[in-house]
Amino acid sequence: MSNRFFFEGSGSEDSGEDNLPYPKPLARSAFLTPEFDPHTYLSTLRNRHQTLEDLRTDLRSRSQEISKELLDLVNENYEDFLSLGSSLRGGDEKIEEVRVGLLGFKRDVEGMKSMVDQRRNEVTALIDQRKAIRRQMQIGRALLDLDQRLCGLEQSLMMTTSNGSQTDHAATATDDEISDSAEDSDEGHA
Questions:
Q1: Which DSSP symbol is given to 47?
Q2: Which of 9, 122, 135, 139 lies 20 to 30 Å from 55 when distance is taken between CA atoms?
Q3: What is the CA radius of gyration of the chain?
């Protein structure tokens, strides 16, 4: 650091004592924050009473210290550093193995997907078939109910008409017409 901050009443220059107020070194932790912004950091240094040249010198020395630390770390871990390079050489084969395994897995997943789609289509067809059977059952029940009502109606008509002979003659005529139409129907099918 330079001697630019000399106080006039503190002694002579020849005494060898330096009573100047030097600023504290820059904190390393300030540079490690993820949201570090140089402009913001430099604006907080207004009260340091340090020249720009002194600040540059301090930052250069800090950069040299960090470079030396990095070099020391690389030298300490040189064997690990070299083995990293040699382990990466065989990486292409491992990547190819993973790729082949991934393609096989993808093929298996697609096969399972097609089986699931096939089962879904089968289940949908069975559900549609079940719905159709239920509709037919409802129609059959409705027809049975209608048949029971018609039988009940015929029986009640038979009771009320059994008192008169004309109605018996009409009922016999109706039975003859039904048997004639049944014979015509049988001839048409033959």
A1: G
A2: 9
A3: 53
What is this structure's pTM? 0.33
Residue 93 one-letter amino acid: E
DSSP string of 64-112? HHHHHHHHHHHHHTHHHHHHHHHHHHTHHHHHHHHHHHHHHHHHHHHHH
| Exposed / middle / buried, residue 161 (Cβ in 10 Å: 0-12, 13-18, 19+) | middle
What DSSP element (H or E) covers 132? Answer: helix 91-161
Instruction: List C-alpha distances in Å: 37 to 31, 49, 59, 140, 164.
Output: 9, 21, 15, 84, 116
pLDDT in tens, the chain (190 residues): 444 343 444 444 445 556 666 667 777 777 778 887 878 877 777 666 677 787 788 888 888 988 998 888 888 887 777 777 666 666 677 888 889 999 999 999 999 999 999 999 999 999 999 999 999 999 999 999 999 999 999 998 888 777 554 445 555 555 555 556 556 545 554 4
SS3 2: coil
The two three-digit tokens of residue 114, written as one number: 């097609």
